[in-house]
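Form P-L/3: holo structure prediction, ligand nitromethyldethia coenzyme A.
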Amino acid sequence: MGRMPGLSTFRQSAPAATPAAKITSFMDMIKEKFKAQADLLGATIKDILKEHGGKKIGEVTLSQIYQGMRGMTGLVSETSLLDSQEGIRFRGYSIPELQQRLPKAPDGTEPLPEGLFYLMLIGELPTEEQANHLSSLWQRRSHVPNYVFDAIEALPVGAHPMTQFVVAIMALQTESNFSKRYDGGMNKKDYWDATFDDAMDLIARLPRVAAYIYRRKYKNGDHIHPNGLLDWAGNFAHMMGFEDERFKELMRLYMTIHADHEGGNVSAHTTHLVGSALSDPYLSFAAGMNGLAGPLHGLANQEVIKWIFEMREQLGVDLPTAEQIETYVKKTLSEGKVVPGYGHAVLRKTDPRFTAQMEFGKKHMADDPLVNTVWRVYETVPPILQSLGKIKNPWPNVDAHSGALLVHFGLVEYEFYTVLFGVSRALGVLASLCWDRALGLPIERPKSVTTRQVKLWLEGKDEIWGE
Ligand code: NMX
Ligand code: MLT
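OUTPUT (holo model):
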């Protein structure tokens, strides 16, 4: 692969707008605030467990252990909570509330993801100044060592962007504070501190790595320098090569709404599980991203747009009619495939993340035929899925909408979409990982059984498990 002139200076630059001292004291301030909150919550949990530790929170059925533990409460995650009817709330705030209450970019109307991260981490809405300090802090920490770019370059350019993304995260792992300090004999009471440092570094670096992959794969390696005056998502858009202010606003919204979906989804749960072995945040997050790359999870965002493009191509129209969509959906189902972007393991109503994107579409591109196709699919698919009688949620999830908005602005390379999801998901799962270590959560290790043992238990011939 040819290198563009100026690539070496591109690789070295690490911009920053706010004075270093101010940023260092901001980092100290949020660390202190976080630790104080964690100590408080740790004490509360201790009291709860002392008094109520033996209380049952539910019962586990055989169906649940054979069928993906659906509906089984088995985890604690502080950053967000999902209600099957209402959708996600981040520290108690719904998406429309966040759109109102989180700080915005100058002249912007969408929330800054920096604000959401602060909220998830500290548990309080940030001021505009705090969100801006976080932007500057991440700018300061965004330097990506050259060997990370070399690791990406070692892969064939045709490698899936998620493969390139995970390889880059693994290359970055050599930078882990947690890992170095653990090797040096770190006291367990300091785990949270090293996790915090790694989380900040990783979040700061991901847009740079992701944009590098995008420009490498789709723009002939013509890389773009970061802009130290922009916020995290705005700068990400800029480094990918998108300067339209509306696209930057879309990125701010996108990075906010994809960030977290309580603790049990595959990417969050995997990050948490791997982190429980004291694998450092880079190892844990890379594991989570491998889960996000599955088509039933984050990869569904590329599958949706691919499915719509194929439908339009087969029908030879830009905006298919409801009848045409119905026929195409039935064909998809008859071929033993899922309709991507529809259904959910927990949600039982339209995902509010879908609705937020629909509102964005109505505001900025109401006449776009692809966006209108998404809306027509929304009118057509649920009754068909419902009529099958087995699908628990016939409504759209977050992935049903995102691609059409991105295509509108020219981000048509749909294999890249899951990387966008992954950059956003870092905010939630890494904030959670800080909490895991601050609360001293232990290694996760549920009990498993064999079907032979289940049968013996059903026949009354064996105790199934025990302690
Ligand atoms: N199209 C066709 N069949 C479906 C769909 C769908 N969209 N959703 C569920 N089903 C099937 C499912 O495969 C299962 O079939 P079978 O009994 O033959 O194995 C049956 O309906 C019951 O499944 P549910 O209990 O309703 O769903 P489950 O909780 O197991 O799975 C999903 C949830 C999200 C994996 C599933 O709805 C799905 O595969 N959706 C399409 C892929 C997708 O959009 N994933 C993105 C999820 C959001 N994200 O970003 O992670
Ligand atoms: C997510 O955002 O993680 C998805 O909606 C999947 C889930 O919640 O299980």
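COMMENT: The CA atoms of residues 341 and 400 lie 4 Å apart.
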